[in-house]
């Protein structure tokens, strides 16, 4: 691994909102790749020894949730500090946490000046505030869910159903089309199945950014699709149980070590800043839901989950292990994941501890060894790539009449802002670049539209489906989005933008040829790669198309009704 070529006055700014230099960000990505196995093994050690409560197993730490727990990012930055100090030169490190300061000061040599901009009181207060917000949100939303489910009334299971299959998915505001449920995560899964098979399949889901639960429950109740409202099974004490889970999570971490370094202070900060966690509580509600199903005498044939190896999945699996031990379960990874979103990749200790589904389904044969990287014994099956079937049904793909840069914004607000900021820097230097912007349907669309308008790109927003928008483009720019993989598999060169605040979330599988995409760390990278793609010869474009065609067969599994039955567990009896 290369080290940082520090000048005597170079600064390493590790404050949470600060942006690393390109050289530092590149090295941070190299470090992330190196320590992923060690980080997984580190967390796995907490599974060992005496039995742990379900609340503990559903924490962001134990799920290796890199979105809710900053430990992996912090450990990567700690290794960056080691590299920074290894030259023996003078320099400055800027921090905004006394907890991190306690850890960093023990590994720096005297020539390094450490500046901490936040005191103990300020940081502890911010941690309390960060935990207070989700607690208040849960108080409001859980109360609304309980009341709404009672006011709207029950939607009971048909009496003739002896055994049912449950599909655990995600509910969005756009999930219903004229009383029919449209599942963004399992589209087309029921096509080709018999009427009896479809009648035995029931959906449950996590409510993503749905504010008016009363209206939403009415939509579900009037829907022609088979949907269970889990709130109709839950009791008020189940919500209290879930919302108060943090009471069981206060622990005394006396000495924590990672790769020979004492990280106790840093570890405590990362753990306690998310001790009140909505994901953990949602997982506990799924656990209680399964127990209530059992009390109602509901029989399960099988369970299919949208799987990200997070608390929602884990709570449900623990409940199924306890109340339906003979029911087969399947976790469907129907997306392309970044290696740096470490928690999605199951570990051997998670398998041994019984928090994983019996089977894990991936959407392409080349993904099998990738998902088994930390757990070779994992039972993995190849299932249809439901969201990406259109990539296998391509007709003649034509180049657009003029060069078009399509910007596909990710679901996260900060990453979207970073992309728009970089785009603005490029476009103001080259006004000949035609731009189209596609907003992620799961994001806060009104908020993102304000961002887009603020940069002067309001007229660039496109409403066409992302697949069509990619085909109408010459180059695609995005970040942590499956659209990046769609683009390269369609032969469209892709610029993947790092936000330079942490390890880059690159969803493009490592087996994809590097000439189909480029990771960009600043606007200069964007400009140089954009110019490279604009100047591509016809022969180069053809070669990219051929490489993309070969990759599609490796990463996109075709749909068949029998494959869908296997995915759903309908072939188990």
Which residues sit in consecutive blocks of at least 5 with pLDDT less than 50? Answer: 4-8
Relevant CATH superfamily of one domain: Glycogen Phosphorylase B
The best one-word shape is globular
> Any idea what the CATH architecture of one domain is?
3-Layer(aba) Sandwich
Number of helices: 20
CATH topology description of one domain: Rossmann fold
CATH class of one domain: Alpha Beta
Can you give the helix content as a percent range?
40-55%
Total E-strand runs? 18
Quote the distance from N terminus to C terminus: 53 Å
**Main pleated sheet:** 6 strands, parallel
The rounded Rg comes to: 24 Å
The helix/strand class is alpha/beta
Tell me what the structure shows.
- The chain has helices spanning about 20-45, 55, 70-85, 100-105, 120-150, 195-200, 215-220, 235-245, 265-270, 280-295, 310-325, 350-355, 370, 415-425, 445-455, 465-470, 485-490, 525-535, 540-555, 560-570; strands at about 10-15, 90-95, 110-115, 165-170, 175, 180, 200-205, 255-260, 260, 300-305, 330-335, 360, 380, 405-410, 435-440, 475-480, 495, 515-520.
- The protein has about 575 residues and is an alpha/beta fold.
- Strands 7-4-10-11-12-13 form a 6-stranded parallel beta sheet. Strands 15-14-16-17-18 form a 5-stranded parallel beta sheet, sandwiched between helices. A 3-stranded parallel beta sheet has the order 1-2-3, covered by helices on one side.
- The longest helix is centred in the first third of the chain and has 33 residues, at about 120-150.
- The model is unreliable at about 5-10 (pLDDT under 50).
